Amino acid sequence: MIKDSPALVLIGTAFHTPTPAALEVLEDHAFVLDGSGALSRVLPPGHPDRPALVEAARVAGRLKELGTGDYLVPGLVDLHVHAPQWPQLGKALDAPLEVWLQKYTFPLEARYADPDFARAVYDDLVATLLALGTTTVLYFGSVDVEPNLILAEACLRHGQRALIGKVAMDHPETCPDFYRDHSAETALAGTRDFIARLREMAANTKDNPLVLPVVTPRFIPSCTDELLHGLGALAEELDCHVQTHCSESDWEVGHVHERLGASDCEALDRFGLLTDRTVLAHSTFVTDGDLTLMKAKGAAAAHCPMSNAYFANAVFPMRKAMEKGVEVGLGTDISGGFSASLFDAARHALMASRDAYNGTDPALPQEERGTGEKPLSTIETFWLATAGGGKALSLPIGQFAEGYRFDALIVRAGAPGSAFRTWPGSDTPGEIFEKLVLTADRTAIAEVWVDGRRRLAA
Ligand SMILES: [Zn+2]
């Protein structure tokens, strides 16, 4: 190979949203990948360096040209998935949260102590999410250490970028005896053990790990103060991401106020758990002060609109969070939400924002009906699902910029059985993008790429 010969060159039209304010249409661009899976150049037509690079790739058999009707978009980033809840997706959502947790969720999560069960479920989960276009997932695992390592193996085998947390929960009053850490000490030891073993996994290369560990207190009510304090110290000592649930419901907000005299954000900050690599699931009931604190610390919110419609009974104040500059992205919250598709989560976020803006009671006059907070646009919604998620995780993903990892989907207009279709002479590139965001489904996803490698093809 000649010097600087690319590992791969893809030529085609891409859509991406590096900021929530604008769509960039990269028509007939050349995307040059280096050997590590990063984008090294993004070249428009007519760029003087382009002919030589394309020719070198062609000679080396490393040139890929997208077909007509194929569009490149960044891979989707799901900021909130409970991996062990995969078998109960779509089930029992009419039950109140307490029943849903105690009767369904905790007994199911406890079953992962059986490695064969964990292997079968996690293999299926990771393959399915990749096929739906989710190239990065922030996963809650379960309490036991081993099944979380099995989940990491599945991510490495299928090539999905993932951040995984061993769930820590030790509070004897809120967690069942059959499914909890039996003390803060054992929870901390288990977390430490999990982080070390995940980082040592042979397939998880040291300089560019595909799977990262996350310090994961389930939420404040299920953890003792001792455990929360210890996890904050551990996140700092071991230089880890943090995830937990935050201000999800009236009950939960009340519980934390009563026990700690503070909001979730304030309490998490006191425990050292609010960092620039913290992702707070839901955050539905955050106050203006909480948003200011999140912004100051660089902590992000994972908005999960499907789950919120069942368990939060309110809509996350997305516009307010975005205006304050708080990092935000989206989650399916499998299985508090009923769809595994992040495209679905994005569409529900859009609809929830419109319902909040419009209001829902037709008996009220129009001007009194809604919050009046401007709803999400299609472009903002896609930004949340891609670049917003990447920013929330502090990872170079979610857009086609030089130096970013190449995580991408090829979405095909007109695929058999798909409603994502375009018509000659009737759609501008911007309109094709809108159609893609609002109508693309599994059958429209022709290829899934993670870290510069094709992981799935239709
Ligand atoms: Zn959750």
Short description:
The chain has helices at 50-59, 97-110, 115-131, 145-158, 184-200, 225-238, 250-260, 264-270, 288-297, 305-312, 318-323, 342-358, 366-369, 378-392, 429-439, and strands spanning 8-19, 22-33, 39-43, 63-65, 70-74, 76-82, 134-140, 161-168, 211-217, 241-246, 278-282, 300-303, 327-330, 408-412, 445-450, 453-457. With 458 residues, it is of the alpha/beta class.
Account of the protein in words:
- This protein is an alpha/beta fold and 458 residues long.
- It has two domains: 8-74 and 399-457, Urease, subunit C, domain 1, CATH 2.30.40; 76-392, TIM Barrel (Alpha-Beta Barrel).
- Helix content is 38%, strand content 22%.
- It is built from 15 helices and 16 strands.
- The chain has helices spanning 50-59, 97-110, 115-131, 145-158, 184-200, 225-238, 250-260, 264-270, 288-297, 305-312, 318-323, 342-358, 366-369, 378-392, 429-439; strands spanning 8-19, 22-33, 39-43, 63-65, 70-74, 76-82, 134-140, 161-168, 211-217, 241-246, 278-282, 300-303, 327-330, 408-412, 445-450, 453-457.
- The strands form two sheets. Strands 1, 2, 3, 4, 5, 14, 15 and 16 form an eight-stranded mixed β-sheet that branches. It has an eight-stranded parallel β-sheet with strand order 6-7-8-9-10-11-12-13.
- Strand 15 (445-450) and strand 16 form a beta hairpin.
- Helix 5 (184-200) packs parallel to helix 6 and helix 12 packs across helix 14.
- The longest helix is centred in the N-terminal third of the chain and has 17 residues, at 115-131.
- It is globular, with a radius of gyration of 22 Å.
- Bound molecules: zinc ion.
- The site of zinc ion has 6 residues, from strand 6.
